[in-house]
Design goal:
The structure is a single chain. It is built from seven helices and 15 strands. The protein folds into two domains: 100 residues, Sandwich (Immunoglobulin-like); 133 residues, Beta Complex (Ferric Hydroxamate Uptake Protein, Chain A, domain 1). By secondary structure, the chain is an alpha+beta fold. Strands 3-2-5-6-8 form a five-stranded mixed beta sheet. Strands 9-14-15-12-13 form a five-stranded mixed beta sheet. It starts with a helix and ends with a strand.
């Protein structure tokens, strides 16, 4: 073989090794990309959006705030989203309905299936910045029953005490009246005897006055409007007019609360003083709102 021919063969052999090396190296570079496309660290959210009647709501927008992941529900109200793990806020909205902001805490690779209820109402425009702290827990996405409780708690209503079923599990009580003394600063529960009329509840800035009780948003009218006005204006005078031996209004408050077992309570909010009572619970010098399970 002549010298030029041998040089040509050597050149081809050298180039073959270079190409093989380049091919192997290119495979090494491609592998991480393929692995990245199959990244199992991202979280998945499968949801369904329904009305209070349980009907699916199509074309509702579901968005992971700050995560640039959004989608619309289909005809059956279903949506599917993926995003980065961590604590996040899921916003679900549609024109003609009140938006929902839900707090989720999902680790790498976690999947969550939720049902979100929307109530008819105006959509908030422009968008409001909502943090994870302000969003309601995702386990209550299926209902709007407790939304006002979450709203008031997130606002940090001054003079308000907010109690959850989780709190009650940590510090259980046999009677609901006991919860007032356990959780409400300055409140006192005085037990004179067992049974109806034997227990009094006294609020620090509402001694002897009318404390309204609300169960699931409905007022329990255990005193007339005239009695309410008399007790707010002159608690001692109202008590003095009661027949001797009859129960006082603070005692009746304890009796009303004892009709509700602590095991029935999902949330409770207590306002101790006229200046702290939200408008929806006005009409006394204190208010107790109980939300059942």
């Amino acid at each position: 073989m002549s010298a030029p021919s041998m040089a040509f063969v050597v050149s081809l052999a050298f180039k073959g090794r270079v190409l093989a090396a380049l091919f192997s190296f290119s495979q090494f570079l491609v592998l991480p990309t393929v692995h990245g496309q199959q990244d199992t660290s991202r979280i998945m959210i499968d949801g369904r959006v329904v009305s209070r009647a349980g009907d699916p709501i199509p074309n509702a927008e579901a968005t992971i705030l700050g995560g640039h992941s959004t989608g619309l529900t289909d005809g059956s109200g279903q949506f599917h989203l993926s995003g980065a793990p961590g604590t996040l806020v899921l916003r679900v909205r549609r024109i003609g309905f009140r938006p929902q902001y839900l707090r989720l805490n999902l680790g790498p690779g976690a999947a969550s299936r939720i049902e979100v209820m929307l109530d008819p109402g105006p959509q908030m425009l422009p968008d409001v910045d909502v943090s994870a702290k302000e969003a309601k827990p995702v386990e209550f996405a299926w209902t709007t029953k407790y939304d006002d409780f979450f709203r008031r708690r997130n606002l940090g209503m001054p003079g308000g005490t907010f109690i959850s079923a989780e709190d009650l599990r940590r510090r259980p009580a046999i009677h609901t009246a006991e919860l007032i003394e356990q959780y409400v600063p300055g409140a006192r529960v005085i037990v004179h005897s067992l049974g109806p009329g034997g227990t009094e509840i006294k609020f620090p800035r509402c001694s002897g006055g009318y404390v309204s009780v609300w169960i699931d948003g409905r007022k329990i009218n255990w005193a007339s409007a005239n009695e309410q006005a008399a007790m707010i204006a002159a608690p001692r005078l109202a008590a003095s007019r009661a027949p001797q031996g009859s129960s006082t209004k603070p005692t009746e408050l304890a009796d009303v609360l004892d009709d509700i077992s602590p095991t029935q309570i999902q949330f409770m909010e207590v306002y101790r003083g006229i200046g702290s009572i939200p408008g929806e619970f006005s009409g006394g010098c204190g208010a107790i709102a109980i939300w059942t399970k």
